[in-house]
C-alpha cells in the first residue's frame, strides 16, 4: 500500500512539473523536434543536439557569471572566438604535420590538445579580465553595477575583436575536420565523427561542471557566494578567489564551445556576435542566473534556430529567437524556468 | 592576562553616516557577555565591525592580541570568530545538511566536521528531521535554528550572536539559549546581542548598554538588572 502511495506521489509530482510553463516548453520542444525530423530528416535532430550542446555550455557560463557575480558579460562571445582561434592555431600546424606523419601519436591526440589549449587560454583571459576590469570596478563603486559592468564588458569585446584583427587579420581560419575517421551510421543516418566527438565532449563538460559545482569544496563555495555573499564571508569563503574562479570557469566554457565548433564555424574577428546573442537568448528565456535550466534552454534555442533556417530561411536565424524573447519578457519576465529560490545550480 | 577580544574606541559608519562613536568592549576568554540597547543603537553594526563585514573608520580591534580591524569577513572567520547574524544569511538554495557543512568550510579535519554535525543534530533534532530540506523553504524559527547551528559548526573561539530569540516562539527560544549554554561548556566565548533584556541579563556574566552609538553603561549583568536607569528605560519599572 505504501509503495503505491509513493508511486502516486511521484506521478503527481511529474504531472504538476509537466503542467508548469517549464514542463510545457520542454514537452512541446521535443514534440516539434520529432515532427520536424520526420518531415525534413534526421539532420535536424543531429544539428540541434550538437549545436544545442554548445549553446548550453556557453549559456551555462553566462548564467554562472551573472548568478554569482551579477556580471552581465557582453564579451562572452569573444571568449568563444578566442577558443576557436586557439584551437585553430593548434590544429592547423598539427594537421599539416599529420599529412607528413599520419601515424604519429601527436596526431591522434591533436583535437584534444586543441580543445585543452582553448580552455586554458580562455580561462587565463577570463582571469585577466577579472583582475584588470571587474575587480577595480568593484573596488571603486557598487552603484549602477550591472550597467557599468555591461558597458565595461562591451569594451572588452571591442578590445578582443580588434585585437584578433590586428594580430591575425580578418581571414577565416578554419579546419576541414578534427578527426580523420569515417562517419558513423546510427538509425540509417550518417553522423560525422566530428559531431559525435563534440557531442561527447559536451556531455563530459556538462557532467564535469555539474559534479564540480555539486561535490567539490570550490564548487559549493561558488554556489554559496551566489546565494548569500555575506553568509559566504561569514563561513570563511574568500570572495576574491571565488570571483577569479567563476570568471575562469565561465570563460573556459565559452572557449570550449568555440573550440569544439571550429569544424563547423571558422574563426574570424567578429565571429563572437552570433554565439553571444545565442547565449543571451538562452539565459533570458530560461531566467537569468539559472544555470541548470540554461542547459535545457541551449537545446531549445538551437532547435528553433535549426527550424527557422530550414523552414523559413537562412537569414531569419535571429528573428525567431528575438521574437521569442519579446514574448517571454512580456508574458513571464522571470524566464520560463525562473528561479524561485535563488541559487546558481538549483532548480 | 591577554583579552580574547579587545575593541578599542571604534568609530563605524556607513558612508558619511556615522553609527558608532568610540565604542570599546573587552572580553576575556570564557566569558558570556551581552550587548543590549534600543532599536537602532548600533548593536548589529558593532558585531559587523568585529566580524569584518564593516571596517571601522577609527580605532582598533584586537583578537587574541592580533589586530583584525579592516580584515575581510572570511579572514576574521578563519581567525576563530563566528557570527550568527540577525538575518541568518542562510544559503537558501542548499539543504540543511549542506548549509551545516558550509558552516564547517574552514575546518579541514573530516572527523571534526562529522563530530560537529552530530553535536548540532543532537542539539536540534528538528534540523535532523529536515536534513534534506532546502533552507529557503523553512519557517522563520527553523531558519534561526539552522543559522545558529551553522555558526556552531566551526567551533569558533568567539561567537557573536545577533538577536537569537527574535521572532521565535518561547519554547524554541529556550532551546536556543540552552544550546548557547552547551557551547559555553565547550569553552566558546559568547557575545550576545539581545532585545530581550531580562533574558540577556539573566544568562550572561557582564553587559554593555549601547545607546545611539555610544556605550553608556557596562557592569556585571546582575548589577545591571538592579540598576535604576536600566530598570526605567528597558524594563519599564
Fold and architecture overview:
- The complex is a heterodimer of chains A (347) and B (237).
- Chain A has 13 helices and two strands.
- Chain A has helices at residues 2-19, 21-40, 43-69, 76-100, 105-140, 145-168, 193-215, 217-227, 229-234, 239-260, 273-286, 291-312, 319-331, and strands at 184-186, 189-191.
- Chain A has a two-stranded antiparallel ribbon.
- In chain A, helix 7 crosses helix 8 (217-227) and helix 8 (217-227) crosses helix 10 (239-260).
- The model of chain A has no long low-confidence stretch (mean pLDDT 86).
- Chain B contains ten helices and ten strands.
- By secondary structure, chain B is an alpha/beta fold.
- In chain B, strands 6-7-8-3-9-10 form a six-stranded mixed β-sheet, with helices on both faces.
- Chain B is globular.
- In chain B, helix 3 (96-103) runs parallel beside helix 6.
- Classes of the chains: A mainly alpha (347), B alpha/beta (237).
- Chain A binds chain B through residues 217, 220-221, 223-224, 226-228, 230-239, 341-347, and chain B through 51-53, 72-74, 77-78, 82-83, 85, 88-94, 98, 101-103, 105-106, 134, 136-137, 150-151, 154.
Multimeric status of the protein? heterodimer
Query: Structural class of the secondary structure composition of chain B?
Result: alpha/beta
Strand count, sense and barrel status of the largest sheet of chain B are: 6 strands, mixed
Q: Order of SSEs of chain B, N→C?
A: EEEHEEHEHHHHEHEHEEHH
Q: Roughly what is the average pLDDT of chain A, rounded to an integer?
A: 86
Would you report the number of β strands of chain A?
Answer: 2
State the separation between the terminal residues of chain B, measured CA to CA. Answer: 39 Å
Proportion of helical residues of chain A: over 70%
Amount of beta strand of chain A: under 5%
What's the quick description here?
The complex is a heterodimer of chains A (347) and B (237). Chain A is mainly alpha-helical and 347 residues long.
List keywords for this structure.
heterodimer, A: 347 residues, mainly alpha, two-stranded antiparallel sheet, 2% strand, B: 237 residues, alpha/beta, six-stranded mixed sheet, four-stranded antiparallel sheet, 10 helices, 10 strands
Amino acid at each position: 500500500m505504501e509503495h503505491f502511495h509513493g508511486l502516486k506521489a511521484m506521478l503527481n509530482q511529474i504531472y504538476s512539473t509537466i503542467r508548469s510553463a517549464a514542463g510545457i516548453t520542454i514537452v512541446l520542444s521535443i514534440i516539434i523536434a520529432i515532427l520536424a525530423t520526420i518531415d525534413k530528416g534526421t539532420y535536424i535532430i543531429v544539428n540541434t543536439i550538437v549545436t544545442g550542446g554548445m549553446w548550453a555550455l556557453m549559456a551555462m557560463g553566462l548564467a554562472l557569471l551573472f548568478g554569482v557575480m551579477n556580471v552581465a558579460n557582453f564579451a562572452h562571445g569573444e571568449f568563444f572566438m578566442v577558443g576557436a582561434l586557439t584551437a585553430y592555431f593548434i590544429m592547423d600546424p598539427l594537421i599539416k604535420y599529420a599529412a607528413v606523419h599520419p601515424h604519429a601519436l601527436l596526431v591522434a591526440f591533436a583535437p584534444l590538445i586543441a580543445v585543452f589549449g582553448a580552455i586554458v587560454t580562455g580561462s587565463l583571459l577570463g582571469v585577466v579580465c577579472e583582475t584588470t576590469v571587474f575587480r577595480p570596478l568593484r573596488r571603486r563603486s557598487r552603484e549602477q553595477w550591472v550597467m557599468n559592468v555591461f558597458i565595461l564588458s562591451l569594451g572588452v569585446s571591442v578590445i578582443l575583436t580588434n585585437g584578433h584583427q590586428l594580430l591575425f587579420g580578418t581571414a577565416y581560419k578554419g579546419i576541414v575536420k578534427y578527426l580523420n575517421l569515417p562517419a558513423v551510421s546510427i538509425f540509417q543516418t550518417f553522423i560525422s565523427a566530428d559531431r559525435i566527438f563534440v557531442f561527447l565532449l559536451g556531455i563530459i563538460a556538462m557532467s564535469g561542471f555539474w559534479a564540480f559545482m555539486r561535490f567539490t569544496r570550490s564548487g559549493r563555495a561558488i554556489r554559496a557566494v551566489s546565494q548569500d555573499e555575506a553568509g559566504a564571508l561569514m563561513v570563511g569563503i574568500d570572495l576574491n578567489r571565488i570571483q577569479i574562479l567563476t570568471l575562469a570557469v565561465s570563460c573556459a566554457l565559452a572557449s570550449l564551445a568555440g573550440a569544439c565548433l571550429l569544424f563547423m564555424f571558422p574563426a574570424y574577428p567578429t565571429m563572437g556576435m552570433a554565439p553571444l546573442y545565442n547565449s543571451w537568448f538562452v539565459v533570458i528565456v530560461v531566467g537569468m542566473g539559472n544555470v541548470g535550466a540554461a542547459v535545457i534552454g541551449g537545446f531549445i534555442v538551437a532547435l528553433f534556430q535549426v527550424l527557422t533556417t530550414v523552414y523559413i530561411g537562412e537569414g531569419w536565424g535571429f528573428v525567431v529567437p528575438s521574437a521569442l524573447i519579446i514574448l517571454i519578457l512580456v508574458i513571464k519576465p522571470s524566464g520560463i524556468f525562473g528561479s524561485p529560490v535563488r541559487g546558481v545550480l538549483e532548480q | 592576562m591577554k583579552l580574547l577580544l579587545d575593541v578599542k574606541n571604534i568609530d563605524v559608519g556607513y558612508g558619511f553616516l556615522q553609527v558608532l562613536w568610540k565604542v570599546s568592549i573587552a572580553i576575556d576568554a570564557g566569558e558570556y557577555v551581552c550587548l543590549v540597547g534600543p532599536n537602532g543603537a548600533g548593536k548589529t553594526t558593532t558585531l559587523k565591525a568585529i566580524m569584518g563585514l564593516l571596517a571601522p573608520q577609527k580605532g582598533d580591534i584586537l583578537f587574541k592580541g592580533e589586530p583584525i580591524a579592516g580584515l575581510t569577513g572570511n579572514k576574521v572567520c578563519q581567525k576563530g570568530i563566528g557570527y550568527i547574524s540577525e538575518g541568518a544569511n542562510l544559503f537558501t538554495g542548499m539543504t540543511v545538511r549542506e548549509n551545516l557543512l558550509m558552516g564547517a568550510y574552514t575546518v579541514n579535519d573530516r572527523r571534526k566536521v562529522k563530530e560537529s554535525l552530530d553535536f548540532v543534530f543532537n542539539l536540534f533534532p528538528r534540523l535532523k528531521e529536515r536534513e534534506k530540506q532546502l533552507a529557503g523553504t523553512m519557517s522563520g524559527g527553523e531558519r534561526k535554528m539552522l543559522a545558529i547551528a551553522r555558526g556552531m559548526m566551526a567551533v569558533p573561539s568567539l561567537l557573536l550572536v545577533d538577536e537569537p530569540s527574535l521572532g521565535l516562539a518561547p519554547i524554541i527560544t529556550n532551546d536556543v539559549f540552552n544550546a548557547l549554554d552547551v557551547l559555553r561548556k565547550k569553552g566558546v566565548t559568547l557575545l550576545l546581542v539581545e532585545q530581550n533584556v531580562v533574558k540577556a541579563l539573566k544568562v550572561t556574566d557582564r553587559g554593555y548598554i549601547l545607546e545611539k552609538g555610544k556605550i553608556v553603561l557596562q557592569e556585571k549583568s546582575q548589577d545591571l538588572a538592579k540598576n535604576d536607569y536600566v530598570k526605567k528605560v528597558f524594563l519599564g519599572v
